[in-house]
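FW: tagging you since you asked about this chain on Friday. Here's the raw sequence from the shared folder, copied in full. Didn't touch anything.
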Amino acid sequence: MATQPDSSKLANLESSLRPYQQEGVAFALAHQRILLADAMGLGKTLQAIATVETANAYPCVVVCPAAVKYGWRREVAKWVPWRTVQVLESGRHALSRADITVLNPELLPTHLDDLRERGLKSLVLDEAHFFKNPASQRSQNALALSRGVPLRLALTGTPIKNRREDLVHQLRILDQLEPVLSIYRGLLPHWWKPTMGPLAETHAINVLTSLDRKTLNDRLRSVCMVRRTKEEVAPDLPPLTRTRVEVMPGHLKAYHQKEQAMLEWVRKWHDKFGAQAEAMEPAMTLEFRAHLTTLRKEAALAKLPFVRDWVEPLVESGERVVFFAYHKEVVARLAAALPGRVATITGDTHPIERRVILDSLDQVDFLVATMDSTGYGVDGIQLHASHVAFVELDWTPTKHEQCEGRLHRIGQTEHVNAWYFVATNTLDRILMDILDAKWADIQGVVDGKEESDTAFLAAILKRVLADGAPRAETQPA
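HL: got it, structure written out here
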């Protein structure tokens, strides 16, 4: 068993916690297997470290995205420097007897047996929503690793990404699915029973979808979920303003060509389904997504000259901007076009290089990154910038919120401005209108962020069918 730190060390650690973080640690210690679902930027990592340390729950394993591994080592060294930590780089990396072992899910298959043999006392799953699919190898490995571990912490700001069933496997890993639903035994037609085998998950989903949102939210909070929003616990956090910047691109020849291909595809499916866009089949969904992705990229490339002109006054006044895009090509082209010193991060950026870039942000004017690489693992940029700008739009509001949350979080002292560049009379207009509506109206089980990716795609298709494809006012170059 790991050596218990002296009382002065624990007292210093506890004094570093904000009151709501102390409450989160207390909840975790009382319930042992919890879903820590605080909003982005409220310090879930610190709460997890403090919980494990207070419980003296070592050895501990942290499973997290590869981009976050060195961030975890950094946080452990900051808050509990008396603990040893190892970061696994590959399947060939030998295990040591460190207090804390950090690895990404892809390394679990080769290390799973050795980790289980260590007699783990705690398990932390960072970005736990990545373990929502029970059929995926990573989710099955996480479930196998969790068995018998007394203290289990699942960390995610978005436990429900698309549908309520996203919760099911996360709760199974925590061994909290049956406790959450236990009061409904005999009251609802479908009840989750461990003896039902593969059907168990289907019946659990039926129960989850049978409950109204408030009822399920209350049940989750009473059994295993901690969820606080920035508005609730950080009233001193500076405000966030979203601004829609209309752009009239000058060269849309490539966009028009891709748009025509999409229109032909829409006509084909309209002949088959009529106006019932919600009847989209899986194959249709994938194909439509591909068309939209292509149009997004072409619209973004056409916006780059405007973005460059827009940002020049900010550079002259000494402001720093963090740009987000979806495509690596857009990141590269934007980085080349911007005036001043630029750093880039994509999914290909090695975690060590990423950390070096983030530690050197005082030396650059702009950080340009892909959305998928920066929803996590970029803590610290709130100390360097207060402007976040999107040159491409995603159809998932939580994706934008994650990126905004990298600046709008604890430690930020300035008003945060989120800029959304919308190419006039292109697909951007439809995407932004629907995002605006979803931000205004989506309410869900967690605190109000339940959304359906398929429904969003269907909404776009309905708009195209109803209005026709948006046409740019300028002629193709």
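FW: The mean pLDDT is 79.
HL: agreed, and Residues 282-316 form the longest helix (35 residues).
FW: great, closing this out.
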